[in-house]
Amino acid sequence: MRAQFVLSEIGVGLRRNLTMTFAVIVSVALSLALLGGALLAREQVSSMRGFWYDKVQVSIYLCNENDADIALTCARGAVTAQQKRQILADLKKLDIVDQVYYESAEQAFKHYKEQFKDDPMADLLTPDQMQESYRVKLKDPTKFEVINTAFSGREGIQKVEDQRNLLENLFRMLNGMNWAALGLMGLMLIVALLLIVNTVRVAAFSRRRETGIMRLVGASSFYIQMPFIAEAAFAGLLGAVGATLLLVVGRYFLIDNGLSLAAEMPLINFIGWGSLFKVLPLIFVVGVLMPSLAAFFTLRKYLKV
Q: Could you report the per-residue pLDDT of 156-201, keeping only the tens digit for each?
């Protein structure tokens, strides 16, 4: 097979169907960018989950004078000093407990005022209405049920709360957005495949005379199909390059100079450039193989060789 002939045929085919080829490149680029973005978003969510789960605590809220009607364990009034000492001692006996922090009602009131300073209700609260609590950091955050079973229902304890539950709604929302991106990627992929099929059909029809002559002189099926497949693969390659540019630019502006602002958002562990570079080979493989296979199966039907 003469490589020069194949390359010349690729150039001719691309020029003949310039508009449709451009549409293929754009649709492939968008679908691959969505694929890469969805993969990176999934890794970001996993990174955030690990980052936050390592920092979440179990809160053991102690009874105050106003909790008698809220929990049966507070029927006898506020937690006593003896009950607090016993709860702390029992916590320190557990192997799964890493550290225990005590927060007084005054500290809880101060933190509430700082966090909800614009809330009109904050001016109506007083320190005696806030609850004392023990904040427990576990060696394994998934072992919450051990703490819950051991301390829920004890006198002097109003409730035991796992802070992971507060994060689950956030992670569910992020996962939902990720699935939405994958769904949009699938739709764009279907559009790209339809464009590729239509482009190959038009190219095969416009060059039916050349292919007929090639059959008459004994050219093999692969030799005849190769220029069409190479055109589709080249368009897919350009689409992969476009998707790479979109991902690189998006990562730079949204994370490096947008969302994170480095030191200004230390509470979010953003994924690095290494995660992006790991996704790029898959982008190029899909970008080349998808149009090539679509062209190959289309030619089997529409190009009688």
A: 888 888 777 666 676 777 777 778 777 877 887 788 788 888 877 7
- The one-letter amino acid at 272: G
Asked whether 175 and 45 are in contact (CB, 8 A), the reply is yes
The residues pairing with 102 across neighbouring beta strands, listed in sequence order, are: 134
CA angle 229, 235, 241 (to 5 degrees): 135
Amino acid 49: pLDDT: 66
In terms of residues, how long is the chain? 305
Q: How far apart are the first and last CA of the chain?
A: 17
Q: What is the pTM of this model?
A: 0.61
| Span 233-246, average pLDDT | 90
Give me the half-sphere count of Cα atoms (radius 13 Å) on the Cβ side of residue 22.
4
Task: Name residue 243's amino acid.
Answer: A
Q: How many CB atoms lie within 10 A of CB 293?
A: 16
CA distance 261 to 33: 23
Q: Is the CB of residue 68 less than 8 Å from the CB of residue 158?
A: no
Contact 14, 276 (CB under 8 A): no
Residue in the structure block whose two tokens are 């993969």:
39
DSSP codes joined into one string, 40-70: HHHHHHHHHHHHHHTT--EEEEEP-TT-TTT
Report how far residue 197's alpha carbon sits from residue 7's, in angstroms, rounded to the nearest whole number. 21
